[in-house]
Amino acid sequence: MSNTLVISVDAMGGDNAPESVIEGVSRVAAKDKDVFFFLFGDEEQIKKLAETYHLPDDRYKIHHTTDVVKGDAKPSVAVRSGRESSMWKAIMSVRNGYASAVVSAGNTGALMAMSKICLGTLSGIDRPAIAAVLPSMNGPIVALDLGANAECNSQNLVEFAIMGHVLHHILYKTEHPSIGLLNIGSEETKGRDEIREAASVLRGLNDKVNFIGFVEGNDICMGKANVFVSDGFSGNVALKTIEGTSKFITGILRQTAHKSFLAALGFLIARPALLKLRKKIDPRMYNGAMFLGLNGVSVKSHGGADAFAFACAVESAIHMARSNLCDKIKHELKHVMDVDVPDMSREI
Predict the structure, then answer these.
(1) Rounded to whole angstroms, how far apart are CA atoms 329 and 347?
(2) Half-sphere exposure of residue 192, counting CA atoms within 13 Å on the CB side?
(3) How far apart are CA 33 and CA 51, in angstroms?
(4) Are strands 129-134 and 289-292 parallel, antiparallel or unpaired?
(5) Where residue 232 falls among pLDDT bands split at 50, 70, 90?
(6) 52 and 186 together in one domain
(7) Pair 187, 297 in one domain
(8) In this structure, are 198 and 311 located in the same domain?
(9) pLDDT at position 57, please?
């Protein structure tokens, strides 16, 4: 197992756990022979499901616990009372060096709080951010923050921009990924003080990062930038709007196809193109939000993820771990910020 990557999985987190979790892990194990899994949760349930989905005995180890973080638990309560939970133990295995990444579909706030406590933040990072990959007309984009920090100062936004820059480069080998700050207009005078201050700093770093200025909500799906940066409140609203629009489009297409014989015939003729569209906008393909800024890889799967979606989240964690994401973020922070920049210490 010298070249084997170890991934820890909270097998009990999520709406469809543990079945969708174990089936998703089995899918990844079938494709990637160099990954070993630590599965945290109820041993009896996990063992039965591993047999059902043909997960080889030599590809996983179960760490038994019956404690689970509830989906509606407040992060502070989860941290105080969840030290024996599958989520906490999975994260701790990364902190203690037994695994290279952790994946959970459980309570987002609890996972962020536990990950921050157990793993700590990288030097130079004030607050971690939730980052995810989204589809666009110009290819996949990275968006952050998507809900970890409802309010941010200019320093946070600059740090998010640098981390997003590194993530897009790692995922897509983009040499100079373009970065846009989400705002209510493209004019320099628009937006809150902290957004305009962050823009001023990023313009001063333009020999290090490719900052293109302010972008608006309608620019996200058009792919005007490779990286979209915002506070967690705005980012989460934008994300949910995009997800809802995707479901709306596929739902309308499905309803229309059953309206009449001619509609069904037209749908049949257009089916190859529509299947490509469905695959491109399928949110399951982009499942797996990363907590950037932590001293370790922690990936959040959507709570309602099916096996296919959970497998995508696990694959994201594997890629992040193999790419040495944390080390590259630390290096880029030092490289980019090792210059004279305006003071960014102002709090909201």
Answers:
(1) 24
(2) 15
(3) 18
(4) antiparallel
(5) very high
(6) no
(7) yes
(8) yes
(9) 94
Question: What are the CA-CA distances from residue 329 to residues 12, 93, 296 (Å)?
Answer: 30, 22, 11
Distance in angstroms between the alpha carbons of the first and the last residue of the chain: 49
Angle, CA of 166, 297 and 314, to the nearest 5°: 100
Q: What is the spatial distance between Cα 92 and Cα 118, in angstroms, rounded to a whole number?
A: 6
Query: Tokens 């809150």 — which residue?
Result: 192
Overall average pLDDT of the 267-277 stretch: 69
Whether the pLDDT of residue 264 is over 80: the answer is no
Among 119, 154, 169, the domain-final residue is 119
Counted domains in the chain: 2
Query: How far apart are alpha carbons 106 and 27 in whole angstroms?
Result: 20
Average pLDDT over residues 18-38: 97
d(CA 206, CA 136): 24
CATH number, domain at 269? 3.40.718.10
- The full 3-state SS of the chain, as one line of letters, equals CCCCEEEEEECCCCCCCCHHHHHHHHHHHHHCCCEEEEEEECHHHHHHHHHHCCCCHHHEEEEECCECCCCCCCHHHHHHHCCCEHHHHHHHHHHCCCCCEEEECCCHHHHHHHHHHHHCECCCCCCCEEEEEECCCCCCEEEECCCCCCCCCHHHHHHHHHHHHHHHHHHHCCCCCEEEEECCCCCCCCCCHHHHHHHHHHHHCCCCCEEEEEECHHHCCCCCCCEEECCHHHHHHHHHHHHHHHHHHHHHHHHHHCCCHHHHHHHHHHHHHHHHHHHHHCHHHHCCEEEECECCEEEECCCCCCHHHHHHHHHHHHHHHHCCHHHHHHHHHHHHHCCCCCCCCCCC
